Structures are given as structure tokens and as C-alpha cells.
């Protein structure tokens, strides 16, 4: 077992990078508080500073109210900043729709083209990623601003790719949006993260990020002539 | 046509690639950001654009160029399933929105 | 109870930051709820306008936006 298993996956999108930084920031605060508490408990166990008449100490009470407030702000402000910037969408180049079904994902590309993919889990073959491999991978270009659109046709699902820092609920009758910028080519995997029925564990997500020209070529075979 | 492409010389493929890069500008265009709908929930952006397209067509008549903007937006944003459902409702005359 | 009156608060000054925190928290929560109720197009108090979000084509109603200033972006939708 590797030590990296105790850590977050490598970040492949600016959002995930920010989340990793935030995790590290919060973790450093948590660690220092834990160490401080351990030291205090230890000294409490072993010292003999007993004073029968000591009932209150205004100064220390004041400070241990103010300092935690400051610590909470140190956590809350970057957290809110990331939360709000994750919701922002900067000039998307393409929109990709992802629909949750019982129990598979389908992807719709319909900007100036018209393509629909149905992405079912592939049953175990040699060299496949067990329970993660799908027959039709979703394709997306890297270093491109993408608007991801999520909805569902039956029950709640949740489209998740940890490496890209995306987790978005697919809600029937509602369209959720999330911006996505993949930094590198590769295959990214995730699983449905909202319990959606019997085969909830068997509707994985596989995203292949490819070069923009390759993506255009791939999509161009499906160019529709409605425009 | 596709068979022909496979047999031509690499230079022609290069030219085709260049063409596709130029093409990317025209091929890749999607619904822009709209300050009316700045949140994660984009349901109304889709529905409003669908309504606006049909209202626009009603006011300006079919084939009026700027109306196509709304159609581009709703095709980019709405799931195919929804558009199909609304289209059949309109043709059957039982669509719930005000057009 | 000690600290609930102004005179007893003087002998327990350590309670002041606690009261300040609670007051700021309550005020913030009230402000945000009221803002949602009055500014957000998800909430309509009258039935005069059934598409209130159309009034925000060049305004900002999000509470906070770190990178973009929505008030400077005009809705790209054509008028007809």
C-alpha cells in the first residue's frame, strides 16, 4: 500500500487544485489544534497547580473566545471563496450534457452538432478497470472551458470525478451546471454518488480528455445540418 | 468521400487538420453566460430560451435570423428528452407555457 | 443569570466577545435571509411579473462573485 492512498487524488483541474490547497490549509489548522489540545490535556493530567479559590479568570475566557473566532474565519473565508468560484462559469466553449438514468449515464453533445452516447458499465475482462470500465467513454477536450449540464430522467444521481473536483447532483426536472477545465489528457474515472437503486454501484463514469482538434474531428462526424 | 481521405497524401491530411483548426471557431460555439441565470440551477435558462424562441417566431415570423439565437441556446442546454416532449406538446396544442 | 444584565456584565467582561459573536451571527443570518426574500428572482411576493429574472439581464443578484462582475455583463439575448 502506498502512502498516497491516504491523500486526495492528483488534481487535474484548477478547481481540484484549489480544493487540495484548501484541504491542506484546513488540515494544518486541525493538526495544530489537535497538538495543542494534547499538550494541554497532558499538562492537566500531570501538574499539581491546584487552587481552591480560583473560580474565574476573565482574561483567558476572553481570549479563548476571540481566538477560535479568528480561526473559524480563517477557515470560512477561503471555503466560501472556493464555493462561490466553483459556481462561476467563464465563457464556455462547449456544453456537454450528462443525463443520469437507471442505471447508466448518457452524454449529449448538441451545440452545433448532435451526438448522444450511452455509457454502460463493461463487465469484467482482463485489463479492464473492475467496476469502472464503460463501453462508450465520454470525450472532452482538455485546456478548454467546458460547461457541464446535469439532469436525470428518473431518480437522483450524482456525477462525480474526484480528480477533476466535480460532484454534481443530477436531479430529474432540473438542470444543474458546472464549469470544467481539464488540464491534461487522460482517462478520468468516477462513480455515481447518490444512491439511486439496485445498480447504483454499477454505473461508473469514464471521461477521456483529448486534444481539441481530435475532439472536433470526432464530433464532426455527427455534424447536423439543422443550422 | 471518407475512403478517398484515407488514401490521400499526408500533406492533404495536414491541410485538413489546418482546416479543422479554423473550423473549430465555427464548430465550437455554445450558449454564452447569461447574467439572468448566474447560479448552478440552469433550468430556467433552458426553458426561458425555449419560450423566447417560440415567442420570437410568433412576433417576427419564421425564418427571422436573430430568433435562431434562442434555438441555439436551448438546443445546447436542454436535454433532448425535454425538447422532444415540449415539441410534441406544442404540435398537439397542450403546451403549458405562454407563447 | 450572571452576565444577562449590564451591571453584572461589567464584572464578567469575558462574556462580551461571546455576545458580539452571537449578535454578528444572528444579524448575518437575518440579513442573508431577507436579501434572498427580496432580491432573489426565485422569490416573488406579487403575481405582477411571472418571469422576474428577466429584470436581471444587466444586474447582479448573486451575493458574492470572486472573479466576475455580473453587473458589467449584459445579457447576450437579442430583443424582439
What does this structure look like?
Chain A has helices spanning 14-46, 58-87, 212-220, and strands at 94-101, 104-109, 115-119, 138-141, 146-152, 157-161, 166-170, 176-180, 186-191, 204-210. Chain A is α+β, with helices and mostly antiparallel strands and 227 residues long. Chain A has 2 domains: 14-46 and 60-87, no CATH class; 94-225, Immunoglobulin-like. In chain A, a hairpin with a 2-residue loop joins strand 1 (94-101) and strand 2. Chain B has helices at 2-7, 10-27, 43-60, 68-77, 80-92. Helices cover 66% and strands 0% of the residues of chain B. Chain C has one domain. Chain C has helices spanning 6-11, 15-39. Chain C is elongated and about 70 Å long. Chains in contact: A-B, A-C, B-C. The A-B interface holds A 87-95, 97, 99, 108, 110-113, 116, 147, 149, 151, 153, 168, 173-178, 212-213, 216-217, 219-220, 223, 226-227 and B 17, 20-21, 23-24, 26-33, 38-43, 45-46, 68, 72, 75-81.
Fold topology:
The complex is a heterotrimer of chains A (227), B (99) and C (80).
Chain A: H1 14-46, H2 58-87, E1 94-101, E2 104-109, E3 115-119, E4 138-141, E5 146-152, E6 157-161, E7 166-170, E8 176-180, E9 186-191, E10 204-210, H3 212-220
Parallel strand pairs in A: 1-5, 4-10
Antiparallel strand pairs in A: 1-2, 2-3, 5-8, 6-7, 9-10
Helix pairs in contact in A: 1-2
Chain B: H1 2-7, H2 10-27, H3 43-60, H4 68-77, H5 80-92
Helix pairs in contact in B: 3-4
Chain C: H1 6-11, H2 15-39
Q: Identify low-pLDDT runs of chain B.
A: 1-18
User: Which chains make the largest contact?
Assistant: A-B, 37 and 30 residues
Helix content bin of chain C: 25-40%
Strand-pairing-aware structural class of chain C:
mainly alpha
Largest beta sheet of chain B, briefly? Answer: none
Q: What is the total number of structural domains of chain C?
A: 1
> What's the multimeric state?
heterotrimer
Order of helices and strands of chain C: HH
Radius of gyration of chain C: 21 Å
Number of strands of chain B: 0
Number of strands of chain C: 0
H/I helix tally of chain B:
5
Amino acid at each position: 500500500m502506498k502512502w498516497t492512498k491516504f491523500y486526495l487524488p492528483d488534481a487535474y483541474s484548477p478547481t481540484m487544485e484549489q480544493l487540495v490547497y484548501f484541504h491542506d490549509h484546513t488540515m494544518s489548522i486541525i493538526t495544530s489544534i489537535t497538538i495543542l489540545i494534547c499538550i494541554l490535556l497532558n499538562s492537566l493530567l500531570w501538574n499539581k497547580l491546584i487552587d481552591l479559590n480560583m473560580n474565574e479568570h476573565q482574561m483567558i475566557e476572553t481570549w479563548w473566545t476571540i481566538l477560535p473566532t479568528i480561526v473559524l474565519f480563517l477557515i470560512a473565508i477561503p471555503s466560501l471563496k472556493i464555493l462561490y468560484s466553483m459556481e462561476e462559469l467563464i465563457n464556455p466553449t462547449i456544453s456537454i450534457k450528462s443525463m443520469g438514468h437507471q442505471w447508466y449515464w448518457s452524454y449529449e453533445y448538441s451545440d452545433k452538432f448532435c451526438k448522444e452516447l450511452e455509457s454502460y458499465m463493461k463487465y469484467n475482462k482482463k485489463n479492464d478497470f473492475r467496476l469502472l470500465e464503460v463501453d462508450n467513454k465520454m470525450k472532452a477536450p482538455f485546456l478548454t472551458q467546458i460547461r457541464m449540464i446535469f439532469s436525470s430522467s428518473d431518480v437522483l444521481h450524482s456525477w462525480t470525478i474526484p480528480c477533476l473536483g466535480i460532484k454534481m447532483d443530477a436531479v430529474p426536472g432540473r438542470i444543474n451546471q458546472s464549469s470544467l477545465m481539464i488540464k491534461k489528457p487522460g482517462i478520468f474515472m468516477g462513480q455515481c454518488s447518490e444512491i439511486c437503486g439496485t445498480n447504483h454501484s454499477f454505473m461508473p463514469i469514464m471521461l477521456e480528455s483529448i486534444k481539441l482538434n481530435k475532439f472536433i474531428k470526432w464530433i464532426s462526424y455527427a455534424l447536423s445540418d439543422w443550422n | 468521400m471518407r475512403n478517398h481521405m484515407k488514401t490521400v497524401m499526408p500533406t492533404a491530411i495536414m491541410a485538413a487538420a489546418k482546416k479543422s483548426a479554423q473550423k473549430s471557431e465555427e464548430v465550437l460555439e455554445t450558449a454564452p453566460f447569461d447574467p439572468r441565470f448566474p447560479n448552478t440551477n440552469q433550468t430556467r435558462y433552458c426553458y426561458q430560451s425555449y419560450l423566447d424562441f417560440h415567442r420570437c417566431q410568433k412576433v417576427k415570423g419564421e425564418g427571422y435570423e436573430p430568433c435562431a439565437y434562442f434555438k441555439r441556446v436551448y438546443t445546447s442546454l436542454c436535454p433532448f428528452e425535454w425538447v422532444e416532449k415540449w415539441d410534441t406538446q406544442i404540435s398537439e396544442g397542450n403546451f403549458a407555457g405562454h407563447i | 443569570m450572571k452576565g444577562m444584565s449590564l451591571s453584572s456584565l461589567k464584572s464578567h467582561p469575558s462574556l462580551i466577545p461571546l455576545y458580539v459573536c452571537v449578535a454578528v451571527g444572528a444579524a448575518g443570518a437575518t440579513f442573508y435571509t431577507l436579501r434572498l426574500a427580496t432580491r432573489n428572482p426565485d422569490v416573488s411576493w406579487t403575481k405582477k411579473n411571472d418571469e422576474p429574472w428577466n429584470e436581471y439581464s444587466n444586474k447582479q443578484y448573486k451575493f458574492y462573485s470572486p472573479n466576475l462582475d455580473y453587473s458589467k455583463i449584459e445579457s447576450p439575448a437579442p430583443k424582439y
